């Protein structure tokens, strides 16, 4: 390991010698005192100014706005959601079973916008936060909600039953969304959907939260992918996931704005 140096030792050694030498020089040349003080003041001011500007930039700097972002979504909101346009192509199809035991295919939802994500049916981390955002987004949509479907695909290989996704839907009040479908199925079928939508899944055990890629896709009424966003969460010191209320509401508003834009075909 590197040797630890006590700052007090440095100050008592090099510092005292430097002060003594400077004092002798100042006694010989009084004009040096003024010049030294001026230079020291400029250096100190410059350091403080640079630190202040750096901190200000850290708080206010936003990445360049990607092209194709809907005009009704601010650059700050797009950055928070990590929102990106995707190539305008058909979304990979699938047919799975929802929390009510109904067979649902992506193709059967043509004519409506689909907000698609991936959830752990026993999640206690980010998924409940996304659930709240979906509920609030549905409310923010108002009359346009009838043209938007909220969809999740199960990523928990240990809890694949319809009863698992039904219980999660009830617990998180997702069944308050009339167009909500939490889909599950055979593990081989789920693997295919995860692969097609670039979702990595790491299941650590029957009673552990599944680690998985957290994404939200926006699919237009033609069945084409349009945008993708990456849900976020903070964690307390005890590891509990949360999101401040202002960010929760911003996420819900963002989901509603993008879904409405995709539904109307307004473009960005």
Explain the overall architecture.
This protein is of the alpha+beta class and 268 residues long. The protein has 2 domains: 8-59; 75-264, Glutaredoxin, CATH 3.40.30. The protein contains 7 helices and 12 strands. The strands form 4 sheets. Strands 1-10-9-4-5-6 form a 6-stranded mixed beta sheet, with helices on both faces. A hairpin with a 5-residue loop joins β11 and β12 (241-242). α4 packs across α7 (245-264). The longest helix is centred in the first third of the chain and has 30 residues, at 31-60. The chain is globular, with a radius of gyration of 28 Å. It starts with 6 loop residues before the first helix and ends with a helix.
* CATH topology name of the largest domain: Glutaredoxin
Count of beta strands: 12
Separation of the first and last Cα atoms: 55 Å
Mean pLDDT metric? 80
Measured as a percent range, the helix fraction is 40-55%
From the helix content, strand content and strand pairing, which structural class follows?
Answer: alpha+beta
**Rg for CA atoms:** 28 Å
Assign the CATH class of the largest domain.
Answer: Alpha Beta
Number of domains: 2
The proportion of residues in beta strands is 15-25%
Helix and strand string, N-terminal first? Answer: HHHEEEEHEHEHEEEEEEH
Q: What's the main sheet like?
A: 6 strands, mixed
Strand order within the widest beta sheet:
1-10-9-4-5-6
Number of helices, counting only DSSP H or I runs of 4 residues or more: 7
Q: Which residues form runs of ≥5 with pLDDT under 50? A: 1-60
**Name given to the CATH homologous superfamily of the largest domain:** Glutaredoxin
CATH architecture of the largest domain: 3-Layer(aba) Sandwich
**What does the overall shape look like?**
globular
């Amino acid at each position: 390991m590197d040797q630890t140096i006590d700052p007090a030792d440095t100050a008592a050694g090099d510092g005292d010698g430097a002060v003594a030498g400077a004092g002798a020089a100042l006694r010989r040349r009084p004009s040096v005192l003024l010049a030294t003080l001026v230079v020291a003041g400029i250096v100190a001011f410059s350091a403080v100014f640079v630190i202040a500007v750096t901190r200000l930039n850290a708080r206010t700097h936003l990445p360049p706005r990607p092209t194709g972002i809907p005009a009704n979504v601010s650059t700050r909101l797009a950055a928070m959601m990590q929102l990106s346009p995707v190539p305008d192509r058909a979304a990979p199809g699938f047919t799975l079973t929802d929390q009510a035991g109904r067979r649902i295919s992506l193709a059967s939802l043509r004519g409506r916008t689909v907000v698609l994500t991936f959830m752990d049916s026993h999640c206690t981390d980010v998924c409940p936060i996304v659930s709240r955002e979906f509920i609030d987004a549905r409310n923010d949509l108002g009359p346009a909600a009838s043209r938007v479907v909220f969809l999740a695909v199960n990523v928990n290989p240990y809890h694949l039953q319809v009863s698992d996704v039904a219980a999660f839907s009830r617990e998180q009040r997702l069944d308050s969304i009339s167009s909500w479908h939490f889909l599950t199925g055979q593990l081989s079928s789920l693997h295919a959907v995860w692969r097609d939508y670039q979702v990595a899944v790491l299941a650590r055990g029957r009673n552990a939260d599944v680690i998985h890629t957290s994404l939200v896709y926006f699919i237009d009424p033609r069945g084409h992918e349009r945008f993708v966003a990456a849900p976020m969460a903070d964690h307390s010191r005890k590891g509990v996931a949360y999101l401040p209320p202002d960010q929760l509401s911003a996420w819900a508003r963002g989901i509603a704005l993008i879904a409405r834009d995709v539904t109307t075909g307004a473009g960005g």
